[in-house]
Amino acid sequence: MTLAEASPNSPAQAAPAGGAAREPRRTAPMPGVWRAGMARSRVELRAFFRNKQSLVFTLMFPVILLVVFGSIFSGKVAGTDTDLKQVFMAGIIAAGVMSTSFSGLAINVAIERDTGTVRRLAMTPMPKSAYFVGKLVRVVVTTVLETALLLGIALTLFGLPLPSTAERWATLGWDLALGTVACAMAGAAYSAAIPNSRSAAAVVTPVFMVLQFISGVFFPFGQLPHWMQTTAAFFPVKWMAQGFRSVFLPDSFQAVEPAGNWELGHIALVLALWTLGGLVLTAMTFRWRGPRVR
């Protein structure tokens, strides 16, 4: 008998009779943030479009405001040759962005926290950042859809002119992108102030409505009281609306803007700061553990 045959640890002795030795079981690698985030995005989008109440409130509320107020407004803005309807159309697009990104996201996160969904997801192997990737993709998709709806109605029913130059199309793109992300980060951070899902709409909707009124959505911004202008300047909706006015209104309208010009660089800076600030606030205030599900 050889040494290999006599050794109790030899492969021949360790292997089961009539078969080869078993290989160690391999653990499947965990999905990365990108793969998990895309999977979570599909879940988020399916959930949104299957929830008829959320779909109607988030997408249709700005559309209803557009049709109602667009049918009421008439005449020229004082000191300009610009139709008041065109000013309102530019502002309501900013309100639509806020509806899908701030209001929709804050309410949705509050509901998921109250039902225990956030807590359960935090206990899974899914990277936590994938949760926010999914939310951001949902916000981007719904915001683009909302903007397309509002633009289509404004063009068809109220004669809102399309951007006349490539530069204005580019401004529309970055203003929409920065405004969407800034409002989404603000909504995620603001969700910490919502105590439960039952009060979510009551906590979010007043902020949404007040910011519309003081940010130049329903009235020309330069005609608002000075204290309203100062207050609105701290929030992204005012700057988004101003950016959209620079896209759709003639350059002559700059004369009635408080600064006398569109302030595009200032708009980009404020929206970028809101994006970073919202990200920091979300990291500081977001709670993964909500009430236990009974």
TrEMBL record:
Q: Which Pfam families match?
A: ABC2_membrane
Query: Which keywords accompany this UniProt record?
Result: Antibiotic resistance, Cell membrane, Membrane, Transmembrane, Transmembrane helix, Transport
Question: Which family does the record assign?
Answer: Belongs to the ABC-2 integral membrane protein family.
ABC transmembrane type-2 domain residues = 53-289
Q: Which organism is it from?
A: Kitasatospora arboriphila
- Does the record's keyword annotation contain Cell membrane? yes
Q: Where in the cell is it found?
A: Cell membrane; Membrane
* Protein name as it appears in the record: Transport permease protein
Q: Which PROSITE patterns match?
A: ABC_TM2
Mode of membrane association: Multi-pass membrane protein
Q: What is its main location?
A: membrane
Q: Which InterPro entries match?
A: ABC2_TM, ABC2_TM_bact-type, ABC_2_transport, Nod_factor_ABC_transporter
Name the residues that span the membrane.
55-75, 87-111, 132-160, 172-193, 200-221, 267-286
Which residue ranges does the record annotate as region Disordered? Answer: 1-31
| Low complexity: compositionally biased ranges | 1-21
Keyword set includes Membrane: yes
